[in-house]
């Protein structure tokens, strides 16, 4: 049976090794995926993910639930570490690339080629969004974060995030239709 987050967090705040290990096991994959989609390098993503959990252990005694999931607190730590890393490197913190691979197996080579073309078109469309819209789309649909978690990470109201997501999806739809409309007009 899975221990409730509240009970587990209280044990972790008392530095119970089993509770800390359980929190690590529950949240590692999501935090790693979040970091990897921004760094695009496995070793760097592993290192930064470990830093997130070290910071968790160092500061868990100060953690207070404020109506959001514990995972939101971890994502905030990861976000802050990423921002610090990019500030030191002097680069933009958000970059979506073709490195996001489809892990499903495809038996049909034609389907693989079609999926590759669709991914290329989607990536090109996403890159036309504003950096904030890219971040919302990435957090929502790659990291599978809830609107409230994204709002907490971006320090915005949930309504603002919902509106940004809606505008981004509308823009993506429009961007993805543009090439088809051009091809139809040429024919």
Structure, explained:
The structure is a single chain. With 187 residues, the chain is an all-alpha fold. It folds into two domains: 5-89, Rna Polymerase Sigma Factor, Chain: A; 109-186, Winged helix-like DNA-binding domain superfamily/Winged helix DNA-binding domain (Arc Repressor Mutant, subunit A, Orthogonal Bundle). Helices cover 74% and strands 0% of the residues. It contains eight helices and no strands. The longest helix has 29 residues, at 158-186. The termini are far apart. Mean pLDDT is 80; it is low at 91-95 and 182-187.
Rounded to an integer, what's the Rg over CA atoms?
19 Å
By DSSP, the count of extended strands is 0
Largest sheet: none
The domain count comes to 2
Are there runs of 5+ residues with pLDDT below 50, and where?
A: 91-95, 182-187
| Helix content, binned percent | over 70%
How far apart, in Å, are the first and last alpha carbons?
61 Å
Arithmetic mean pLDDT: 80
Annotation field: number of helices: 8
* Element-level helix/strand string: HHHHHHHH
Q: What CATH architecture of the largest domain do you see?
A: Orthogonal Bundle
